[in-house]
């Protein structure tokens, strides 16, 4: 039971019915990505990010699995991308996060690409990096709302049990392509990326993502608290 005046659950699958027996009768529920707690810069970059996504191709792929990568998903993604034909004009950006570092396996895989590979550790300009990315590959965690706010088409993987629902819901509404860990090695990731690179229209996915979260969640919550 939650003894609270306000209850915030920013997940896409949240609904009042699920909390009905757990909260006081006069509790205000703030449910769904409309209330996602994003830093202000995501809202600041939203307009420019969405404006460049009409009829565009893929020139920059961003790989990011959060602050750390304990299951080595980045290496698995790189290995899968090596199995398909990617134009050398496509830049691949990799954010390792603050808890993960580039290792010898990463270096060996990166050396096999003809593409420009840009690697980052801990970043403070995620909104800027996402806004110039044409396709994101990463985890289906809270960063999903950041990508949605900026309308970034995504291929996502649930890397924790509590991310499965997010991945399923984003896939269902057309905001992302949800895959499983098995798809990192069975050819499915490469197949989907290849289809996208060969001209699959990403505008529809971008619009679906942008409709999930507008980046105003923080302001909405503050206004409700102040009221």
How are the SSEs placed, and which strands pair?
Blueprint: E1 6-9, H1 16-19, E2 28-31, H2 40-51, E3 60-64, H3 73-81, E4 91-95, H4 104-110, E5 117-120, H5 126-131, E6 135-139, H6 143-149, E7 154-157, H7 164-172, E8 177-178, H8 188-197, H9 203-212, H10 217-226
Parallel strand pairs: 1-2, 3-4, 3-6, 4-5, 6-7, 7-8
Give an account of the 3D structure:
It is a single chain. This protein has helices spanning 16-19, 40-51, 73-81, 104-110, 126-131, 143-149, 164-172, 188-197, 203-212, 217-226; strands at residues 6-9, 28-31, 60-64, 91-95, 117-120, 135-139, 154-157, 177-178. The protein has 227 residues and is α/β, with parallel strands linked by helices. The strands form two sheets. It has a six-stranded parallel sheet, with helices on one face. It has a two-stranded parallel ribbon with strand order 1-2. Helix 3 packs parallel to helix 4 (104-110) and helix 6 packs across helix 9 (203-212). The longest helix is centred in the first third of the chain and has 12 residues, at 40-51. It is globular and about 60 Å long. It starts with 5 loop residues before the first strand and ends with a helix.
Descriptive keywords:
6-stranded parallel sheet, 227 residues, 15% strand, alpha/beta, two-stranded parallel ribbon, 8 strands
């Amino acid at each position: 039971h939650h003894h609270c005046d306000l209850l915030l659950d920013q997940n896409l699958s949240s609904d009042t019915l699920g909390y009905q027996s757990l909260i006081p009768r006069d509790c205000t529920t703030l449910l769904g990505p409309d209330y996602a707690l994003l830093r202000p810069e995501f809202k600041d970059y939203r307009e420019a990010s969405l404006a460049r996504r009409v009829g565009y191709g893929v020139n920059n792929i961003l790989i990011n699995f959060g602050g750390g990568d304990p299951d080595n998903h980045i290496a698995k993604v790189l290995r899968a991308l090596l199995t398909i034909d990617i134009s050398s004009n496509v830049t691949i950006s990799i954010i390792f996060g603050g808890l993960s570092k580039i290792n010898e396996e990463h270096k060996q895989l990166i050396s096999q690409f003809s593409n420009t590979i840009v690697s980052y550790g801990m970043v403070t300009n995620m909104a800027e990096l996402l806004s110039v990315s044409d396709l994101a590959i990463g985890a289906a965690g809270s960063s999903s709302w950041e990508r949605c706010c900026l309308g970034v088409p995504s291929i996502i993987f649930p890397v924790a049990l509590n991310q499965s629902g997010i991945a399923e819901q984003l896939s269902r509404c057309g905001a992302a392509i949800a895959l499983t860990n098995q798809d990192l090695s069975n050819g499915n990731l490469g197949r989907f990326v290849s289809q996208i690179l060969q001209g699959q229209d990403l505008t529809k996915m971008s619009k679906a993502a942008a409709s999930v979260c507008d980046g105003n969640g923080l302001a909405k919550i503050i206004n409700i608290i102040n009221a």
